[in-house]
């Protein structure tokens, strides 16, 4: 999927990436930008967002899956003294996402998640796909 102006127009994450909306950028490189979730589930709840506007996880083709998102998520967690042993990473499965721009949730420690957050980011649910589950599904498509 290629980046297109109509899909970027009005996208909150694209506005953050383009510097048109205030947000503390925790990390950025040529492919990704990382910032805190607006409604964090724990002290460490980051979003790894690609600079290219992909609508959601289902809009990715197999050859577009960039596992560097995982490395970036682990790196930002380590740099901010987050607990990697209690790490939860995953995507909200459409239509259960609030922003139509692909983003990886990186959350720790999962033990500190409240009842509502545990439901929102429930592993192997219809609405939240844990990174391990997603990777298995992608490998099955290859």
CATH fold title: HIT family, subunit A
Strand line-up of the largest beta sheet? 1-2-3-5-4-6
Largest sheet report: 6 strands, antiparallel
Shape: globular
Write down the domain tally.
1
Approximate helicity band: 25-40%
- Helices and strands, in order, run as HHEEEHEEHEH
Average pLDDT figure: 83
CATH architecture call = 2-Layer Sandwich
Layout: helices, strands, pairs:
Layout: H1 5-8, H2 12-17, E1 25-28, E2 32-36, E3 44-50, H3 68-79, E4 88-92, E5 104-108, H4 115-120, E6 128-130, H5 131-141
Antiparallel strand pairs: 1-2, 2-3, 3-5, 4-5, 4-6
Keywords: Hydrolase, Nucleotide-binding
Catalytic activity: adenosine 5'-phosphoramidate + H2O = NH4(+) + AMP
Active site: 103 (tele-amp-histidine intermediate)
Question: What attributes does this structure have?
Answer:
nucleotide-binding, 20% strand, HIT family, subunit A, 5 helices, disordered N terminus, Adenosine 5'-monophosphoramidase HINT3, 142 residues, six-stranded antiparallel sheet, globular, alpha+beta
Quick gist of this model?
This protein has 142 residues and is α+β, with helices and mostly antiparallel strands. The protein has helices spanning 5-8, 12-17, 68-79, 115-120, 131-141; strands at 25-28, 32-36, 44-50, 88-92, 104-108, 128-130. The active site is at 103 (tele-amp-histidine intermediate).
């Amino acid at each position: 999927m290629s980046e297109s102006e109509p899909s970027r127009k009005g996208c909150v994450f694209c506005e953050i990436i383009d510097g048109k909306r205030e947000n503390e950028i925790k990390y950025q490189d040529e492919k990704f930008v990382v910032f805190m979730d607006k409604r964090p589930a724990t002290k460490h709840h980051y979003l790894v967002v690609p600079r290219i506007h992909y609508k959601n996880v289902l809009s990715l083709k197999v050859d577009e899956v960039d596992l560097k998102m995982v490395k970036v998520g682990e790196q930002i967690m380590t740099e901010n003294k987050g607990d990697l042993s209690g790490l939860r990473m995953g995507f909200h499965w459409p239509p259960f996402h609030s922003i139509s721009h692909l983003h990886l949730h990186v959350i720790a420690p999962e033990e500190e998640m409240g009842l509502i957050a545990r439901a929102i980011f429930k592993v192997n649910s219809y609405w939240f796909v844990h990174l391990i589950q997603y990777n298995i599904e992608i490998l099955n498509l290859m």
